[in-house]
Specification:
The complex is a heterodimer of chains A (457) and B (93).
Chain A: H1 9-20, E1 26-33, H2 43-57, H3 61-72, E2 76-83, H4 86-90, H5 99-112, E3 116-123, H6 130-145, E4 149-157, E5 161-163, H7 164-180, E6 192-196, E7 217-223, H8 226-234, H9 241-270, E8 274-281, H10 291-299, H11 308-326, E9 335-336, H12 344-351, H13 357-364, E10 371-377, H14 382-399, E11 403-410, E12 418-420, E13 427-429, H15 439-444, E14 447-448
Parallel strand pairs in A: 1-2, 2-3, 3-4, 4-6, 7-8, 8-9, 10-11
Antiparallel strand pairs in A: 1-7, 4-5, 5-14, 6-11, 12-13
Helix pairs in contact in A: 2-5, 3-9, 5-6, 6-7, 7-14, 8-9, 8-10, 9-11, 10-11, 11-13
Chain B: E1 6-14, H1 19-29, E2 33-42, E3 45-53, H2 61-75, E4 77-83, H3 85-91
Antiparallel strand pairs in B: 1-3, 1-4, 2-3
Classes of the chains: A alpha/beta (457), B alpha+beta (93).
């Protein structure tokens, strides 16, 4: 029936299978909202304006998302909001505590029905302004007393170098956040991302914020589909690695097209410009929706074995190539995510002793983000946490890529214990940490200079 | 004809008497024109794909979706209706 069907029944069934069996979904549509015009000299007034603007612009976000999901028969799992880094919005108030702004964001998110709102953020790669300090000061309390607010800080860029004072401070803030949320396993830390080279249009939480170069309001789409890639790879056990790259590219292309379609439709219905599609393989704890299992299907006994970095490099690059062809505007993080707690294969790899923190760090050098959603013992010193962040930021800075750390020093937990976060955030086995001290390095403070960009060998 | 008004209905489940009749009755009631049908049995599973024109439909998309889902439940099959753009976007540039 080629006359009316411009596609074959096999193609139709392939799409249905990807959605219904392999968990292909639109992971998030994220509305970016500029809050720059909400900044006033009074924090209370700023909070009011922030709440009003978000609830006005995002009023229909969830309903439209659900409508589009039904029309196309493809689930849109999350609807979210990213806002201007709050350090910049709160700064004119002259206050030293921005927790009220976090609460205003939380209330606005609840009012419009989104599960996360990102942008309790500061960009401090070169240094602090007064507003940046106020935001840092507020982080533990803001994360402990709000439910939906996500925070992120950018502490390094390839062009500016690394702000080690910020990194040292974060070591303490992360511990404080963990202790304030100890009854939930340190959950507050799961909502705080420390970036190097943070993208301004990333739709994925917890690191989403609406960057200074973004328009007034924008729709960015994050898609996922580890399950679809895994199923495709499993169909070709005899393929060589070049053929495998092509198989991954084909799948990534198809997955990204869904994001492009949904993004265009949502933005048209909301009357808001369409920003980018972020093609990231974002795993969930659902059966088969795992990046670690993809690496194992490529040919590893367990994720974390030698060869894991090579397999991940192939996967990440093929995903980007397929995705870039499928959308006019690809942005955000775009690549493979390797969060430990949100990926059953990663959890198993840690539990079986195949995956160490050191190997995880090596993997981040070739994938899209970084050390994500992993738990370490609650008594890990602040300097060690800072040094973990510094190492990760150095990888990003030198390699001109985004890296990030989302670490949970789980209060009262020891290596081998399990921390349960529930829902999308999953559960994390507590990983062993190298206990030799980096304290002297961290206490030196100052900035690590920006790296040379030529002579790149 | 543009793709805008076209949708694709897929019906998956165990084969039994009356699946086609049941689904087409819902469509006829809603004044939805069937443009083409493909039907196969894949590994014991009844697989039907229909392409339909929603231009003259008396129901909103979500109402039709709901009715088809209900009918699917009665028949013990899974019925999906999606705008045709999904397939065009995924498989064609």
């Amino acid at each position: 029936m080629p006359s009316l069907f411009s596609f074959t029944p096999e193609e139709i069934l392939e799409t249905i299978r990807m959605i219904q069996v392999e968990n292909l979904d639109i992971r998030t549509i994220t509305m970016g909202i500029s809050l720059r015009d909400c900044a006033t000299a009074s924090l209370a007034e700023t909070c009011r304006r922030v709440y009003d603007k978000i609830t006005r612009l995002a009023a229909d976000l969830v309903a439209v998302g659900e409508e589009v999901a039904a029309t196309y028969g493809i689930p849109i799992v999350n609807k979210r909001i990213a806002v201007t880094p709050i350090a910049q919005v709160g700064e004119p108030s002259g206050e030293d505590d921005f927790t009220p702004l976090a609460r205003a964001l939380d209330r606005a998110a609840e009012a419009v029905g989104v599960n996360f709102i990102g942008g309790f953020s500061a960009l401090v790669h070169k240094g602090f302004t007064r507003g940046d300090r106020a935001l840092f000061n507020s982080l533990p309390e803001a994360l402990a007393t709000t439910e939906r607010v996500c925070a992120s800080v950018n502490v390094a860029t390839t062009k500016a170098g690394m702000n080690m004072d910020a990194i040292a401070w974060l070591g303490h803030l992360i511990k404080e956040t963990a202790s304030l949320t100890a009854s939930q396993g340190g959950l507050g830390c799961a909502k705080l991302v420390t970036f190097c080279n943070a993208p301004e249009d990333n739709p994925f939480m917890a690191g989403a914020f609406h960057g200074p170069g973004e328009p007034e309001c924008v729709i960015n789409v994050g898609i996922s589909g580890p399950g679809a890639v895994l199923a495709a790879i499993r169909q070709y056990p005899g393929a060589n690695l070049g053929q495998l790259a092509t198989i991954i590219k084909n799948t990534a292309f198809k997955v990204t097209r869904m994001g492009e379609l949904v993004g265009r439709e949502v933005s048209a219905r909301l009357g808001v410009p369409f920003g980018i599609v972020d093609l990231s393989l974002a795993p969930t704890n659902a059966q088969g929706d795992s990046v670690a299992e993809i690496l194992e299907a490529i040919g590893l006994e367990r994720c974390g074995a030698h060869g894991t970095t090579a397999a991940l490099a192939l996967l990440n690059d093929a995903v980007k190539k397929g995705g870039a062809m499928a959308s006019s505007y690809v942005g955000g993080l775009s690549g493979a995510f390797i969060p430990v707690s949100e990926d059953n294969g990663m959890i198993q790899a840690v539990e079986s002793g195949a995956l160490s923190l050191e190997k995880l760090e090596a993997m981040t050098a070739v994938c899209s983000v970084g050390l994500d959603m992993f738990a370490i013992p609650g008594d890990t010193p602040a300097e060690v946490i800072a040094a973990i962040i510094a190492d990760e930021a150095a990888i990003g800075m030198i390699n001109n890529k985004t890296t990030a750390v989302r670490v949970i020093p789980a209060p009262g937990k020891k290596p081998g214990d399990m921390v349960e976060f529930g829902g999308l955030l999953g559960r994390a086995p507590v990983m062993e940490v190298n206990t030799f001290s980096p304290a002297a390095l961290v206490r030196r403070g100052g900035r690590i200079p920006a790296p040379l960009q030529a002579l790149g060998n | 004809m543009t793709n805008d008004e076209r949708a694709i209905i897929t019906v998956l489940g165990r084969d039994r008497v009356g699946i086609l009749a049941g689904i087409t009755a819902v469509l006829a009631e809603a004044n939805v024109n069937i443009l083409d049908i493909s039907q196969t049995i894949l590994q014991e599973f009844f697989t039907m794909i229909m392409i339909v024109d929603l231009k003259e439909s008396s129901l909103a998309f979500n109402e039709l979706q709901e009715q088809l889902k209900e009918k699917g439940k009665d028949l013990g099959v899974q019925v999906t209706i999606q705008r045709a753009d999904v397939f065009k976007f995924m498989h064609r540039i």
